Amino acid sequence: MKIALFQGPAHADSVDDALRVLADRAREAAASGARLLVCPEMFLTGYDIGVEALHRLAEPADGPSAQRAAAIARDHGIALLYGYPERERNTVWNSAMLLDASGRPLANHRKTHLFGELDRRAFAPGDRVVTTATLDGLCLAILICYEVEFPENVRLAALAGADLVAVPTALMAPYHFVSRALLATRAYENQVFVAYANRCGQEGTLEYLGASAIVAPDGAELARAGGGEELIVADVDPDAYAHSRAINTYRGDRRPELYARLASPHEP
Amino acid sequence: MKIALFQGPAHADSVDDALRVLADRAREAAASGARLLVCPEMFLTGYDIGVEALHRLAEPADGPSAQRAAAIARDHGIALLYGYPERERNTVWNSAMLLDASGRPLANHRKTHLFGELDRRAFAPGDRVVTTATLDGLCLAILICYEVEFPENVRLAALAGADLVAVPTALMAPYHFVSRALLATRAYENQVFVAYANRCGQEGTLEYLGASAIVAPDGAELARAGGGEELIVADVDPDAYAHSRAINTYRGDRRPELYARLASPHEP
Description:
2 copies of one chain form a homodimer.
Chain A: E1 2-7, H1 15-31, E2 36-38, H2 51-57, H3 64-76, E3 79-88, E4 91-99, E5 105-110, H4 116-120, E6 131-135, E7 138-142, H5 151-159, E8 164-168, H6 176-190, E9 193-197, E10 200-203, E11 206-209, E12 213-215, E13 221-224, E14 230-235, H7 242-247, H8 250-253
Parallel strand pairs in A: 1-2, 2-3, 7-8, 8-9
Antiparallel strand pairs in A: 1-14, 3-4, 4-5, 6-7, 9-12, 10-11, 12-13
Helix pairs in contact in A: 1-3
């Protein structure tokens, strides 16, 4: 399956702007043959825009913006994954929505591992690490930004059968290491694909790093963006990595009976 | 604390040879100011030498070779960590012994995650992932080769308080990725130092990759060996990475209540 990542928007002043960008990029991605377009964290609204704005712009998972995104998916015949602030009654989450190519909601993931005050001031933590869906026969797991930095989360996704871990993100300076080295390790140690769609440009006090990437199970970069707005595309084909899976037998060689401490409550 | 890694030996035909190399390199490491010398997996005997030889050369943890290594530690006033085949009654493990600078045994680690037929034909699996000791005020954890490739194991070492994960190893082609990218991720995601001492040269059917390294909590390489015999040295000072620890708060941000599946028995 060919997939596309959109890095951006560098500038979008409103949800309307973001949805226009989504329509443009969905058209472009579909024209390239991609079956899925992954967009960054908080794609619809912006991220470092203040708690008040995030809460004001938050919508239910099936709210009006999700309906408009579904129409875009349908119009261009491409699945979409994008970040947005989700509201349900009085709670707001940092979420990512996956719509299939007919606009039907396939999965909605709520970020479980919140990043610093930026997240904690605005969002409640989700309580389900692994959110998966099947797309064109591929098992896709959704993680948001900081979550992929925890080996526990990507391992849990792999144990749930993920072939591809798709990550809407908002990686900023000085965390270059995450995109440069950590992503490839997550792919390699779990023998999965990782698709990491970042924001770019300056927003509030944050300098987003771009450097979105699609990484293969053998750790190779299939596609890598620069620092500005960009659409990148790669083919995600687990069968092409049979050799890598055969010589990296981590999943079968794990010894979960020795790992109890990983799941026991934090000790100071 | 300054530490040294010895990459080699490329050629050692006997345990006597290996102990001579150990004495030479202990002298050199101590002269450079190092307080610990880390040597590769199966340093005393060789690794791909066949099951019969490994079993014949296996010794108890306090056997004659350990006594001679202890004398070397004492003579040069430097702690030693080295791999060897350990026998206790009828069982043989792939082990690593840590001696302090007075020759006293501080810790003995038995490899828990065996690598392919090479290990499985010769060794029983250890049943304790985390083996730690305190050296010059630093908490050191020992892992052997393949073990460091599992994020679970390094996380468990970090949760047990490790500042430094010391890894006698025998990394061969085509697993370049481990040394090139995975090690730095282990250091970064746990905010620990990783010291990875590899073999080099050809042995049996194996081409060892060298590329031993000492990596810091921020993912930076403090020292990196080439492909041949070499001693590398670096300073391991957790206090110098206070900034890295302050901005990478993974340990405190873990959510172990969501990780039960990591420790549950393998499901097909």
